[in-house]
Design a protein that fits this description.
272 residues, alpha/beta, Trp Operon Repressor, Chain A, two-stranded antiparallel ribbon, single chain, 16% strand, five-stranded parallel sheet, Alpha/beta knot, elongated
Length: 272
C-alpha cells in the first residue's frame, strides 16, 4: 500500500515514508488502511510500501529461512533475502526524495518503545523508516549487525512475528503527525504524553447500570474538572505504574495531589 499521488516533490512538505519488510505484506497493508492511520495516509501525512523478502530469494522455492547452526527448534530467517529487501526499500525512499533511511527491527530483544521515542521518530519526517518484521525463531544476527540501526520491543512478551509490533509503531507514529487527529488536543491529553497515565473518561448516559458519572464532570467548572482529571491520572499512575513517577519532575500541583492520594490511601488502607 502506498498513498496515491505522493512523489518526491511532496516529501519536502513533511510526508513520512514508512517501508515494511514482511512475509505478510497484505496483512500490514490492509490493517494500515483502517482508522486514524488510514485517514492520515489519505491526507498525505504518511505513505507505506511493503516488501516481501521472498521476492528477493534466489532459488526456485523462494526460500527465506533455514535451520539454525548449533541446533535447536524452529527456523531462522536468512540474511541475504532480507538484506536485498531492505536495500530495495532504501533505494525506493531515495527515489521519492527521502534524505536518509533508518532501519528498525521489531523484536522482544529490543529496547522498550516509549512515547518519547515515538515523538522523536515522528518529528523527523526527513528520515524514512524501514521496519523489519521477523518471523520464525528470529533473524540471522549478521543481518542485524550489518543493516539494522535500532531494535525496538513493544513489551515483555512474544508474538508470532513482527507485523503486529510494526503496525503498533505505525499507529503510534501516525497519531503524532500534525493533522492526523481531528482534535489535536487528543494527542496532548493521552497517557504517557505528560509522563502520567490517562484519567478515566465517561459519556452518555449519565447513569449506567446504577453507576453515575462523577459530579465534577457535570458541573461545568472547568478548573475543577481539570484538577479532578489530574488527580485521577496521578492516582492511576500511582496504583498501576509507580515506576513512571520515579525521577519525574513534578509540578507543585502534582506534588500536592500525590500527597492527598497517599494520605487517602493510608487512611483507607487501599488505593481505590
Amino acid at each position: 500500500m502506498s498513498s496515491p499521488g505522493r512523489g518526491a516533490a511532496e516529501r519536502a512538505d513533511g510526508t513520512m515514508r514508512i517501508d515494511v519488510v514482511t512475509l505478510f505484506p497484505a496483512m500490514v497493508g490492509e490493517a494500515a488502511k483502517v482508522g486514524i492511520t488510514g485517514r492520515a495516509a489519505e491526507r498525505g501525512l504518511w505513505s507505506l510500501r511493503c516488501w516481501n523478502p521472498r521476492d528477493f530469494a534466489t532459488d526456485a522455492h523462494r526460500t527465506v529461512d533455514d535451520r539454525p547452526y548449533g541446533g535447536g527448534p524452529g527456523m531462522v530467517m536468512m540474511a541475504a533475502p532480507l538484506a536485498a529487501a531492505i536495500a530495495a526499500a532504501r533505494h525506493a525512499q531515495r527515489g521519492e526524495g527521502v534524505a536518509r533511511s533508518h532501519t528498525i527491527h521489531l523484536t522482544p530483544a529490543g529496547r522498550p518503545l516509549t512515547h518519547a521515542r515515538v515523538a522523536e521518530l515522528a518529528a523527523d519526517r526527513a528520515t524514512g523508516l524501514v521496519l523489519l518484521a521477523g518471523r520464525y525463531e528470529g533473524i540471522d544476527e549478521r543481518l542485524v549487525e550489518r543493516e539494522v540501526d535500532e531494535e525496538i520491543a513493544i513489551g515483555d512478551f512474544v508474538v508470532s512475528g513482527g507485523e503486529l509490533p510494526a503496525l503498533m509503531l505505525i499507529d503510534a507514529l501516525a497519531r503524532q503527525l500534525p493533522g492526523a487527529l481531528n482534535d489535536a488536543q487528543s494527542a496532548v491529553e493521552e497517557s504517557f504524553v505528560t509522563g502520567l497515565l490517562d484519567c478515566p473518561h465517561y459519556t452518555r448516559p449519565e447513569v449506567y447500570e446504577g453507576m453515575k458519572v462523577p459530579d465534577v464532570l457535570l458541573s461545568g467548572h472547568h478548573q475543577a474538572i481539570r484538577r479532578w482529571r489530574l488527580e485521577q491520572s496521578l492516582k492511576r499512575t500511582t496504583e498501576r505504574r509507580p515506576d513512571l513517577l520515579e525521577g519525574r519532575a513534578s509540578s507543585k500541583e502534582e506534588r500536592e495531589g500525590l500527597a492527598r492520594i497517599r494520605d487517602e490511601t493510608s487512611r483507607t488502607g487501599r488505593g481505590k
